[in-house]
Amino acid sequence: IYNSLAEDPYTYPWKAEAIRRGYQAIAAIPFARGTQYAGALTLCATETGFFDDQIVSLLEEMAHDLTFALRVREDDERRNRAEAELNRTNMELAAAYEQLSAQEEELRANYDELKYREDALRQSEEKYRRIVETANEGIWALDKDFSISFINREFAEFLGYSENELIGKKI
C-alpha cells in the first residue's frame, strides 16, 4: 500500500509515470499465492491516503475470496484430470476383464474337451483290458529289447507261470 506516491521512496522506479497519470496512491494486493493463478490486484487512486484501513480490509477480503475461488478451480481441474485418468484406467481394466473372461471361457471349453477325451480313453482302455484279460487266446507284447512287457493270464497259465513271473523276461 502506497498512500502517498510523492513522499514514498520505494515508488521511485515508477513514481513519475504514476503521478503523470494523476495517481497519488496505489494498492497492490496479492492473491492466490502458491497456485498457478498467483497474481496481484493493483488499484490506483487520485487521492493521497485513499487506501484507509477499511478499504484495505475490504481489498484483502476480496483477495481472500478470489484466492479461494481460484484454489477451488485448481482443485476442480486436478479432480477432473484424476477422474479422466480413473475413467481411462477403468476402460483398460474393463477391456482386460473381457479378455480374461474370453480366455477363461476358452480354457473351460478346452478342459471340458480334455475331460471328455480322458473319460472316453478310460472307457476304451477298460473295454480292451476286459477283452484281453478274458480272451481264450494267448496275448502278449514285447518291448524293443524283446522282453515281455505284457502277457494275459491265459497265455501265462498255458506256459505254466504267473503273469508277474513273465513280465520283464527276455525271449
What is the compact description of this entry?
With 171 residues, the chain is of the alpha+beta class. The protein is 60% helix and 12% strand.
3D structure, described in words:
The structure is a single chain. The chain is an alpha+beta fold and 171 residues long. The protein contains four helices and four strands. The mean pLDDT is 94.
Primary descriptors:
171 residues, alpha+beta, two-stranded antiparallel sheet, 4 helices, 4 strands
| Percent range for β-strand residues | 5-15%
- Uncertain ranges: none
> Helix count?
4
- Structure classification: alpha+beta
Strand order of the largest sheet: 1-2
How many E strands? Answer: 4
Distance between the termini: 118 Å
- Using only CA atoms, what is the Rg? 49 Å
As a percent range, the share of helical residues equals 55-70%
H-E string: HEEHEEHH
Largest sheet descriptor: 2 strands, antiparallel
What's the rounded overall pLDDT mean? 94
Give the helix/strand layout:
Blueprint: H1 12-20, E1 25-31, E2 39-45, H2 53-134, E3 140-142, E4 148-151, H3 153-159, H4 163-166
